[in-house]
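[User] I wish I could look at a protein chain and see how it folds. I have put the entry right below:
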Amino acid sequence: MRVAYGIEVDKEPECDYLMIAEELMVAFSSVFTPGKYLVETFSVLRFLPAWMPGAGFKRDCADLKRKAE
């Protein structure tokens, strides 16, 4: 973090940047698990509205996008 962004992480026991990065990596690995969502097999499901049952992939990806911003 120091070399890339100039952020010292050794001085703070719980650095916000590290917590955000760890949280995003856990969410990223959960969302991108192969075969987790049916939309990977049936691409037409990408047109489902997010509120519809079976479109949990849209809600999960929207949550990951909010965390990444």
In short: The mean pLDDT is 81.
